[in-house]
Amino acid sequence: MKNELPIYSINKFEIVNNEGDFYSNYLNKHVKSHHFTNFPHKHDFFLVILFTQGRGKHEVDFETFNIEEGYIFVLKPGQMHYWELSDDVDGFVFFHSKEFFDKGFFSLSIQDFHFYHSFQGAPCFKLNKNQLNKVKFSMNELVTEYVKNDFFKWQKIHSLILLVYIEISRVKTSVGTIKNQTYLTKLRTFEDLIEENFKSEKFVKEYAFKLNITEKHLNRVTKSCIGKTSTQLISERIILEAKRMLLYSKLNVTQIGEELGYYDNSYFVRFFKKNVGMTPLTFLGKYKVLN
């Protein structure tokens, strides 16, 4: 029988001198202290992991990344992930709630960073030597500061987090180079609406109405920013949830389809096959073989 995919909050981890909205640690120590991270799970917080040593693989929402020095991962709340790591793996990790970050700045929000404001953003970045040295220094300072109770502790922690995010932002990405901030803002709002409504609303016209723009303009926004149609974004979010439920819920294919708003099972199977290239049951069997 399949187990439900667990969703962890920060208080699941060994927090220090904190109300439960921030955590930082050396990666090797973190992994050894929290063995449940080796199994698929989700979080309700923002997570950053820097690898400085060791090998392994890290799977994020069904995409597998090989691990090596200089790779940094940024995960948003709700993303499914797990890893298989060598014993000598090391680096740094920190995570925080949205409220923790936002309360540290008056004119800056966590979603102002391109890797957080779009669900299409890559979860993995390769730092060059200069970037790696800067981020290593800041994340080491985070771990050190976290266990102390010096004056202005939390102000310094907020500042160090910001330095890390600035360095990640400077890694070249397709979304990060978009100049039209109006389009990026509209894309962010569109993705927020998809996240809230994908189980009940499947058509572009429904989202265009909520955004008070035409379907044509909404497609122009998504194509300009990330090279995908509005329909693709809606479908990809539905498919992602279907994959998660196939592997980590106790529901069968028919029940999953109904949960996602498809009450004709044959239509749901065709929709899944069109987007994934195989039926739900074939995907389930193949994924279990690969893992």
Briefly say what this structure is:
The chain is α+β, with helices and mostly antiparallel strands.
Topology, please?
Blueprint: E1 7-8, E2 22-26, H1 27-33, E3 42-43, E4 46-53, E5 56-60, E6 63-67, E7 71-75, E8 81-85, E9 90-96, H2 98-102, H3 114-117, E10 124-126, H4 129-146, H5 153-169, H6 181-197, H7 204-211, H8 215-226, H9 230-248, H10 253-259, H11 265-276, H12 280-290
Parallel strand pairs: 1-3
Antiparallel strand pairs: 2-9, 4-7, 4-9, 5-6, 5-8, 7-10
Helix pairs in contact: 4-5, 6-7, 6-8, 9-12
Question: Can you describe this structure?
Answer:
The protein is an alpha+beta fold. It folds into two domains: 7-176, Regulatory protein AraC (Jelly Rolls), CATH 2.60.120; 181-290, Homeodomain-like (Arc Repressor Mutant, subunit A, Orthogonal Bundle). It is built from twelve helices and ten strands. It has helices at 27-33, 98-102, 114-117, 129-146, 153-169, 181-197, 204-211, 215-226, 230-248, 253-259, 265-276, 280-290, and strands at residues 7-8, 22-26, 42-43, 46-53, 56-60, 63-67, 71-75, 81-85, 90-96, 124-126. Helix 4 packs antiparallel against helix 5, helix 6 crosses helix 7 and helix 6 (181-197) packs across helix 8 (215-226). The two termini are 17 Å apart.
